[in-house]
Write a structure and sequence with these properties.
By secondary structure, the protein is an all-alpha fold. The protein has three helices and no strands. Helix 1 (6-24) runs antiparallel to helix 2 (29-42), helix 1 (6-24) runs parallel beside helix 3 and helix 2 runs antiparallel to helix 3 (47-76). It starts with 5 loop residues before the first helix and ends in a 13-residue tail after the last helix.
Length: 89
């Protein structure tokens, strides 16, 4: 039985690196890493592609929760950025 192609393994490794960078410093890379890992997995890549999908999914969940938090905070402060009861500049 033949293993995955070198291109698929390389794409899986790239997706893993992108997912780690995405979760550590640039959350916008998490969806890219997730879908790149998904593509690599479909081509037969191994555990690196699966790890990229898991880490990318966690990063996407964090991004969604951050956006929800931002929306709730903006709604609570009336869009001014100042909590109710504090003097506005």
């Amino acid at each position: 039985m033949a293993g995955p192609s070198p291109e698929a393994q390389s794409r899986g490794n790239t997706a893993l690196i992108l997912s780690i960078v995405g979760i550590l410093c640039c959350n916008l890379l998490s969806p890219v890493a997730f879908f790149m890992g998904l593509s690599a997995r479909r081509e037969g890549a191994g555990a690196n592609a699966v790890a990229a999908m898991v880490i990318g999914g966690i990063g996407m969940a964090g991004m969604v929760l951050s956006l929800i938090y931002l929306i709730v905070m903006l709604a609570a402060t009336g869009g001014t950025g100042t909590p109710p009861g504090f003097p506005t500049p």
